[in-house]
Amino acid sequence: MRTVPGLCPGRRTPASALTSVVAVAAMGIGLVVLPVAPAAARSGAPIVFHVSPTGSDKANGSAAKPFRTLERVQKAVRTSLRTAVRQGRPVDVVVHGGTYRVQSTLRFGAADSGTAKAPVRYVAAPGERVVISGGRSLAPQWRSYSGAVEVADIGAGLDFDGLFLDGERQTLARYPNHDPDTAILGGYASDAISAQRVARWKNPTTALVRGLHNGMWGGNSFKVTGVKADGTPDLDWVGDNNRGSGLHGTYRMVENVFEELDAPGEWFYDKPAGKLYFYPPEGVDPAKARVETAEQNELIRVEGNGPGDAVHHLTFSGFTFTQTHRTLFNQPYEKLQLGDWAFARAAAVHLKNTENVVVSDSHFDQVGGNAVLVDGYNSRDAVSGNEFSHSGASDVAVIGSPDAVREPSTWDSMRRTISDTRPGPKTENYPRDVSIRDNYMHDNGQFEKQTSGVQISMSRHVTVDGNTIHDGPRACVDINDGTWGGHLIENNDIFNCVKETSDHGPFNSWGRDRFWPLTADDATKKSYAGLDAMETTVIRHNRIRHSSHWDIDLDDGSSNYLIEDNLLLNGGVKLREGFHRTVRNNVFVNGGAHFHVWFADSGDVVEKNVFVTDTPYSLIQVDMARSKPVINDNLFWNNGKTVQGLGDAWRAQGLDTRSVIADPKFTGASPFDDPKKLDYTVGSDSPALALGFRNIAMDGFGKAGSPTPPPLAWPTVPPATDTLDAFPEPLLGAPVTRIHSDAIKSATGLTDTNGLHLASVPNTSEAYRQGLRANDVIREIGGRQVTDRNSFWLVYNQAAPGTDVPLKVWRNQATADVTLRKPVGGEQINNTSGVVYTGTGWDWKNSSRGGAGGWADDVHATQAAGDSFELAFNGTAIDLITQVNTDEGEVELFLDGRSVGTVDNYNATRVHQKTVFSRTGLTPGIHTLKGVMKTGDYMIVDSFRIH
């Protein structure tokens, strides 16, 4: 494609289309073009009506005598349609400059439809700015109230939650005050709804609480309905998250409280009294400013009577849509399948039961909720050439109806069996063949936090092409479920996403379709995976930049994806719990492939990629022999330094046997020298080409003329994986760790880092025999919460041999009960397993820091005389096992608080795992063994054997 002179800069228009477009309008974001029928198909000139704020609804709608309202011109169009369709003449409504205030939603039905030869097109007049507003213009007579705060009487009972001053949204009175430099919620405070805070409010029931989900999986919002006896507020959840109502303890704020009106730009409306209070921004005289509200949820609703009686061939082009009410607190939320998203089915422009409806070349400016919603049955609609700026929720949402889904599951009602094995949708109530092209989308999710630039659910064949999408609280493109695939995500420029939440990617998907929650083996799940993810979704030729682990996050169950020809900056690709994902011919820069919780015989392929990173692969609960992926012909480069994880053990599994570690020979500067580099073309002598890699076009990403991604962020220090939290200590033959990374937290689906994680459980281990499984997280033991290692071991060690130890584990994102039987033949525990260390000199040492040779290749050591260790255990005998050497000395031991003598750990040579103390014949029950350093340079603790 080439850019056509005279059209909107950045909007790519095929040269061949020049014969079928006519420039009819312009606005601040560029010229607007109006598609018309090709000359060969036209049998007459368009029928044209004009409308202007200075016109009259008694006029004839001509250019000289325009109508005044959109409602009046709509009636004229309907009257003319029979003639237009018979003669094959388009009907054009030229809307002249000014503001059109929508007092009730403009509704378009089947009677407003055009045809392919006689389309109906509402367009802004050339060179004129046309605003469609959901608010009213106020004429407040301001007077001083207190300090800088002014007040005006505007009438009681108005319903608005947005106030605009000269077109800019002002801040609803809040605590803490808005801070533009704080990404999360524009400022947050853990005491936002504390009893002490609430006590300051005369009328707490006006308060609205916005916060993050307690797992940072989007937002959670509440209305305050009263005050409890303890002074904290009663909260009524609005339902804006599909994963429950948990409110984050820190990331929260409160608004719409009169007593919190204390900062420039803040306002509060006393609805019963009809008084508007306002703290003007510094240097602004509100008496000279244009003051407007945001009152209507929707501006335009296009809705047919059903798939057989749809609205069709209707275009809206060149408008500014603005000042809609937030739908966060006044609309019901619907849980969308088993994705994380709950959704309010409302938008500034709402399309339902439509065909060939176009929304183009417009500006969605600070709308309160979603900007465009393609809802239920829709076919061949297009959203193109628009700018979306500071939307309250998502920019474009393409959402089908649950009645189109066969045997849908929700988190509240999850199906475990399948009775309907037919593939595909059940009804026609879903969008298909929808195009979202060449839009500039930025700063979505101003109020809702489970939002994106483009959101897709229960849809088929959605094309997201050539958009620039940046800055939002969660994903920039999200596919909520696998139903029904066939989407094409290409040529987009995506960056600065997931700014307020976590465990997510700029592109995010879930595939928790019919197969995912089944109580079935992996082979059965694989046979059902294609029932809903029927067609391959392609993610191709995008530039995606992220500041965390994965640019492309194929989360739970995401299946049937092709990821190729993408430039992935500062992140990588996550593949979790799905089937048939191919990752091919991508360039990964400062990021890698994350393999999480794979099924058997996954059908996954990772080949012919270039990885510029130190660690190309990260594995969590993946058995390659069982999963049987194809991973080969990749090139790895770490600026000449070591590339982790590609040793003999990896290759022995048949992985990367033809791959190489070599300089890819990018043209221009090295990315290690130039973090701003965006051209990753490899030279003709690149070894990547010999592996089958082919160069990716390094242009054509996003909407031309839009901002581009920020520089890479190369790590300045190695990641902190060599830590005690990450150390795998033995539990009944299985390694357990803390939840020490976001990757593990993501793989387990937890909202916090409490518990002990079992990355693997060998099927020969006692842990496996007693019911523990890989990726389990032990959350409770004996009814007590497990937060860290010792909260588990202090309880476990005091259970008597042969007794039952009840556990609650987190497994497959649900709680399960497991009962362990404490071994009666004795067991060995590590120095990390419930031992209490007292003193200032203790240091934990793993194999890389001096602990090699210990029972678990680690020890605890101190050099401070007087330091002590103590273990509480239940048994009749105990052995103390440690290292002896020339730099060690005497340790006084105490059993149940009484000295039992001194052991001398001095030895002429180093000996690992030496038993230095044994005591048998103890009374059955709980005992303590304590050791105190007396002499020597070191006291070392390795392990204990308990009988």
Give short descriptive properties of this protein.
947 residues, mainly beta, 5 domains, 25-stranded parallel sheet, 14-stranded parallel sheet, 9 helices, 76 strands, disordered N terminus
Summarize the structure.
By secondary structure, this protein is mainly β.
What does this molecule look like?
A hairpin with a 5-residue loop joins strand 16 and strand 17. The protein has nine helices and 76 strands. The chain is globular and about 110 Å long. The protein is 6% helix and 36% strand. The protein has five domains: 128 residues, no CATH class; 158 residues, no CATH class; 359 residues; 97 residues, Roll (Pdz3 Domain), CATH 2.30.42; 118 residues, Jelly Rolls.
Calculate the terminal CA-CA distance, rounded to whole Å: 77 Å
Calculate the mean pLDDT score and round it: 93
The largest sheet, given as strand count, sense and whether it forms a barrel, is: 25 strands, parallel
Shape: globular
Identify low-pLDDT runs: 1-42
Give the amount of beta strand, in percent.
35-45%
Taken together, the total number of domains comes to 5
The number of helical elements comes to: 9
